[in-house]
Amino acid sequence: MKGLIIKDFMCLRRQQSVMFLYTIIVTIILSVMFVLSSNHGNISHVMDGLMADSSFTASDVEHVVVDEIIVFMLLPFALVLDVSSIILADNKAGFSKVAACLPVTLSQRVLARFMSIGLLSVIGMAIDLIMVILLSVFTDIAGFMTLLGIMVSLACLMLILSFLTIMFSFLLGSGKEEYAQLASVFTIIVVVLLFNIKSIVSIFKSSSPDVTSYIKSLNSVTDFLADKSYVMLIAMLVVCGFCYLGSVKIAENKRGII
Amino acid sequence: MNVIEIKGITKDYGDFKLDNVSFSIPEGSVCGFIGQNGAGKTTTIKAILDIIKVDAGEVLVFGKDVAKDGAVIREDIGVVFDEMGFHEFMTGKDINIMMKNIYKNWKEEVFFDYLKKFSLPSRKPCGEFSRGMRMKLQIAVALSHDAKLLIMDEPTSGLDPIVRNEMIQIFREYVVEEDHSMLLSSHITGDLEKLADEVVFINQGKIFLAGNKDEILEKHGILKCRKDDLKKISEALIVNYDVEAYGVSVLVNDRDACRKLYPDMVIEPANLEEIMLYYVR
């Protein structure tokens, strides 16, 4: 099984070694730019401007900046957790034929894929940690624990996306990796919408647009990611278990095809 | 002891059915698995390796049920397919790293010795290898973990005669060891004639002939006669016949009986290819 994980890493090393390096460099550059800008540049000016606006509180302004950081923090995970590349490479090589003849069970083969993704997320977190340390030490935007909480939440979110992609890839079969990725994104969107259906309905029902309530909703999402990363961790573990068992079942039913 | 024992396996794909396939391969022997493309050779091999779930029947390898102990059994099986399944960027060194973390009995030195013996560069991506080199790489992998059974699906198809002969030589060296057995599927019967002790013929998912190669070759023969004489030959002896411009060629299943019954007719030995062609026609 260890050999299969090594193979997955070899696939990514060969295909995306440049991308890995690029991600690390971009993360460092972005972090430094953010630090400089939030202390002396445009971010600092925007923050001052928003503070001057009576409709925004200091907390709202901080949240807006943290939301921007979240987008940057997602980048390393999005680039590193490239599960589709591994699946595509295996399909292109016809590796499933070789894998099926190895002394590993089908469930071990699926587990190896899940473990590869788990290890890749650790790399993503390591890259993100550079950003977390730089921003928490050199700016007043957010504390280390807040950013660390966001990082863990984002890692869990991307892992959920990857685990769903693996399961959908097994379900849809080879050559449909892009659809599997779309299906996993769609599933997450549907679940998030269902959990927040009340707030969404209330936004559509309100006759006049209320900017403050929008900002509050946005702030609550940011706070959730920062403070309740354990909820995301539990959700990720549940999805991981479900997707693993689902993938094994599908792979078992499609034995000879996968 | 039989190294492989297949008991009545059935697999229905709708448009193709592996129908009640049964045969066995004694330990230490080379079994040629003969059939035209799409006859069911690969499906049977997949069933032996537990890659597919059979609808009915049982497959025993080394006396163990593959459905229960597939992963353990595969530790002692080397497999070579007609197409290499390794990623094109992988070098011999990469494959070694991967395999030594998969097979308990992986012998690194043996693998690199084979690469050297087959003149395969260990640092060159296998995607740049020729077809012959790719097959040799697969064989090197298959032979580097003390496999007691080698299963090969069309390993010589598409190769030039020189490489084919080299590979046959490698297979001969492998079966020198008494406990080494081999299942070699091919539609190139010439290769099997050189190597096999046992042969199994399959057509449209059904086994139509199986047994010791020499006995099968000894029994079968091509009887040449005039069209009018065909009626004189007992139907029980005729497998099939071919009407030609100046007469009829008949594949008979008991050469000695034919010689005694029809002393005036010419009976020539049949080779595996002729046997296959007459049976499936």
Describe this structure in words.
The complex is a heterodimer of chains A (258) and B (281). By secondary structure, chain A is mainly α. Chain A is built from eleven helices and no strands. Chain A starts with a helix and ends in a 5-residue tail after the last helix. The mean pLDDT of chain A is 84. Chain B is an alpha/beta fold. In chain B, 33% of the residues lie in helices and 30% in strands. Chain B is built from ten helices and 14 strands. Chain B has a six-stranded mixed sheet with strand order 6-7-8-3-9-10, with helices on both faces. In chain B, strands 2-1-4-5 form a four-stranded antiparallel sheet. In chain B, strands 12-13-11-14 form a four-stranded antiparallel sheet, with helices on both faces. In chain B, a hairpin with a 2-residue loop joins strand 12 and strand 13. The longest helix of chain B has 14 residues, at 161-174. The A-B interface holds A 1-4, 6-7, 10-11, 14-15, 89-90, 92-105, 108, 252, 255-256 and B 46, 49, 51-53, 70-75, 77, 79, 81, 83-90, 94, 97-104.
Give the helix/strand layout.
The complex is a heterodimer of chains A (258) and B (281).
Chain A: H1 2-40, H2 42-52, H3 58-80, H4 83-93, H5 95-100, H6 106-138, H7 144-172, H8 177-195, H9 197-205, H10 211-227, H11 229-253
Helix pairs in contact in A: 1-2, 1-3, 1-6, 2-3, 3-6, 3-7, 3-10, 6-7, 6-11, 7-8, 7-10, 7-11
Chain B: E1 2-12, E2 17-26, E3 30-34, H1 41-48, E4 56-61, E5 64-65, H2 66-74, E6 77-80, H3 92-100, H4 108-117, H5 131-142, E7 149-153, H6 161-174, E8 181-186, H7 189-195, E9 198-203, E10 206-212, H8 213-219, E11 221-225, E12 238-244, E13 247-252, H9 255-261, E14 266-269, H10 272-280
Question: Which characteristics define this entry?
Answer:
heterodimer; A: 258 residues; mainly alpha; 11 helices; B: 281 residues; alpha/beta; six-stranded mixed sheet; four-stranded antiparallel sheet; 10 helices; 33% helix
